[in-house]
Amino acid sequence: MAVVHDNIRDFISADSIIASLLTGGVHDFNTIDEQDKGGADWAPRETNGVRIAPHLKMRWGEASPYGENILLAAESESLELYIYQDTGYDIIDAVTRRLKAILHNSYFTGDDVDYSYMTFANLTRQTNAEELGDASLRVMSFQHIYLLQE
Hints:
alpha+beta, eight-stranded mixed β-sheet, 3 helices
């Protein structure tokens, strides 16, 4: 088994609907070149080499204690999902619907946590990513609550 963050990324990537929509893949900000951090030079491209392929970048927020009972050793963090496509929002909208369906009220485990729970938190308005030549972008966030392993 892997750490819970990797398990969640793999769960998203393995979903057949998500995989068919996000032809540019699912990526973790921590694995993207530090200098470019997912800008235009890094961005996955369609087969024509010009258009940005629909893709998702995951970013985890900082963890903080969760709940009043510190004996549980629970923490909470946010998961931000940056969803891109070259133009339009049809793919992004389909991806956000699917992500909500598979992640909201879902449970995960990992080598680093005993138990974790994911709940939908927010979806931004339609906007554009300047770093990707004004590609279409929406950011979806989830709250991730987990019990640390003792």
